[in-house]
Recover the amino acids of this structure.
């Protein structure tokens, strides 16, 4: 059962204690090439050495060995070549894991060895993490997950019960999640209580019938990444300027989360989203701006104020000429302003 995000602080410590009690061993990986200088995380390996059970090395060019190891342990830990260290689960080794990190996502090179996973006796994960892919989870039943979430504030697991939006938001708010994905609820609007997701840093919404964005969305002061997929969108409100920590904004119109037979997107000329508000220039931390399939026909000059912007992607819009001021934005690494193909950049 996957986690929406990895537990941190006290919740992380409680989860480590739980995993120590329910697992035979835990695994950490060293996945850097042999010719790369090892980082200071080697002190962590030294501290854990008294609990080392065994070490296995997976060669990148030996697929038979790789397949055999994956089949033997049935764990998320073994997905690439590297050196893997198996440690005995006990109170002392668990205490070290709690001292060395504050959350599962801390287990990443170069600070620490990578991808802390707990293996059950006989194989299979009890708890797993693949930090580069933001994948975290526990092998528990729905009933066990509900009991654990009641007991450990900050442990936020994906439940079947979350098909009910109110239950999803109740749990997201209770566990102070920093990431949430909302899709498949048949929404025509987002509830204003979305403003109560006070710790949210990443929010993805895939609901084809969402047309307006509520003011509560723009009260999420810690939000860094916002992605919205919908069939049509009325506008980007001027209130977007309030998201001062936003680094990535992605909007995709003509999107359907439940297409019916014969479904067709509106012609882009009929998409309501036809402008980018000048207030976009107030998003000083913005690094990526992606807005796809719209009737936008011009860009606001205020984009020049975005000194951290690296990616500007306006595919399938109605702009017929790349504005001259974009050439002065030397920090841009990628520019796509196109009417037809997502990959055809219009030249001036």
């Amino acid at each position: 059962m996957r986690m929406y995000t990895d537990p941190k602080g006290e919740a992380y410590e409680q989860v480590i204690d739980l995993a120590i009690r329910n697992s035979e061993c835990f695994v950490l990986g060293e996945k850097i090439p042999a010719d790369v200088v090892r980082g200071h995380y080697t002190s962590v390996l030294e501290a854990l050495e008294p609990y080392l059970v065994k070490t296995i090395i997976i060669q990148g060019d030996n697929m038979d060995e790789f397949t055999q190891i994956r089949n033997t342990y049935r764990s998320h830990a073994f997905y690439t070549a590297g050196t893997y260290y198996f440690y005995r689960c006990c109170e002392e080794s668990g205490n070290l894991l709690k001292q060395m990190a504050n959350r599962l996502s801390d287990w990443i090179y170069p600070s620490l060895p990578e991808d802390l996973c707990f293996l059950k006796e006989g194989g299979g994960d009890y708890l797993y993490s693949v930090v580069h892919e933001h994948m975290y989870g526990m092998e528990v039943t729905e009933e066990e997950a509900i009991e654990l979430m009641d007991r450990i504030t900050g442990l936020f697991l994906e439940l079947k019960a979350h098909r009910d939006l109110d239950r999803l938001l109740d749990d997201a708010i209770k566990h102070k999640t920093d990431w949430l994905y909302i899709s498949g609820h048949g929404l025509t609007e987002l509830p204003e209580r979305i403003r109560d997701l006070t710790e949210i840093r990443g929010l993805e919404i895939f609901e084809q019938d969402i047309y307006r964005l509520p003011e509560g969305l723009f009260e999420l002061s810690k939000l860094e990444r916002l992605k919205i997929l919908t069939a049509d969108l009325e506008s980007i409100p001027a209130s977007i300027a309030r998201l001062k920590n936003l680094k990535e904004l992605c909007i995709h119109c003509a999107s359907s989360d439940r297409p019916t037979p014969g479904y067709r997107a509106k012609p882009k000329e009929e998409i309501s989203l036809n402008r980018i508000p000048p207030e976009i220039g107030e998003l000083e931390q913005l690094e990526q701006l992606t807005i796809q399939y719209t009737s936008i026909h011009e860009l606001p000059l205020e984009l020049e104020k975005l000194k951290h912007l690296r990616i500007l992607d306006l595919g399938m819009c109605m702009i017929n000429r790349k504005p001259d001021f974009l050439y002065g934005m030397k920090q841009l690494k990628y520019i796509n302003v196109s009417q037809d193909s997502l990959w055809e950049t219009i030249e001036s």
Summary: The radius of gyration is 23 Å. The longest helix spans residues 10-22.
